[in-house]
Amino acid sequence: MNTKINNTSIWPEQIVYEDNHIIVINKLPSEIVQGDKTGDMPLSEKIKNFIKVRDSKPGNVFCGVIHRLDRPVSGLIIFAKTSKALARFNELFREKTIQKTYLAVVKNRPPKESDKLIHFITKNEKTNMSKAHIKPVPNALRAELDYELIASSDNYHLLKIALHTGRHHQIRAQLSAIGCPIKGDLKYGFARTNDAGFIHLHSYQIDFVHPIKDEQVSIKAFPVTSDSVWNYFSKQEIK
């Protein structure tokens, strides 16, 4: 059977890792991970459609959501292909043993070449925004990340970010708090949006010990876009 690819499925090029237990997708910034009020088809359903056609599966396809990325953010995201894998990977995330590395493009050069950022995040439910406070405030959650300046162009700077906590809009809020809003992120202080509505934040690398195979897995992927800024920085060496 031929695999038909359209807006109800994923592109094969988006699959960066797959075994019997999980599938890792390089998410496009326009895609949502789970269904929301927009009614747009979520990535989890697109994966089911793709696997059903590709593997000629007669019955239902399992695709469990393990973690999420904001809609305007691109990059690596893991989905479970079995309920066993879903339970095991949920435990890995609870134990914080999965390492996630992001790339962010900012207009302003950060105050230091590298630094650890610690803030206290509060979320405004009405605006769906987070605020990064320097000191603890009521109902705030501690947020921590490390960043490193790894490349610059004439107009922008590329940061590599190791995320240590998973707070709502954490990277976006913390970089904004140090005067470095992400390119295109009008919500957190960048001057204008990108034409396609995405922001220059990408889940670049995921490292974990496979809880079923007991093997070390390290996956990297640049954005699947034709954006000139990402194309420029994709040519830089990232260690």
Description:
- The protein has a single domain (12-234), classed as Pseudouridine synthase (2-Layer Sandwich).
- It is of the alpha+beta class and 239 residues long.
- It has helices at 43-54, 83-95, 170-177, 228-234; strands spanning 15-18, 22-27, 64-65, 74-80, 99-106, 114-124, 129-133, 141-152, 157-163, 201-209, 216-220.
- Strands 1, 2, 3, 4, 5, 6, 7, 8, 9, 10 and 11 form an eleven-stranded mixed beta sheet that branches.
- Helices cover 17% and strands 32% of the residues.
- The model is unreliable at 1-6 (pLDDT under 50).
- The chain contains four helices and eleven strands.
The level 1 CATH classification is Alpha Beta
Main pleated-sheet profile: 11 strands, mixed
The tally of beta strands, per DSSP, is 11
**Which range best describes the helical content: under 10%, 10-25%, 25-40%, 40-55%, 55-70% or over 70%?**
10-25%
* Name of the CATH homologous superfamily: Pseudouridine synthase
Low-confidence regions: 1-6
* Rg of Cα set: 18 Å
Secondary-structure-derived class: alpha+beta
The quaternary organization reads as single chain
Order of helices and strands: EEHEEHEEEEEHEEH
CATH hierarchy: architecture: 2-Layer Sandwich
The CATH topology, please?
Pseudouridine synthase
Shape: globular
Strand content: 25-35%
- Please, how many domains? 1
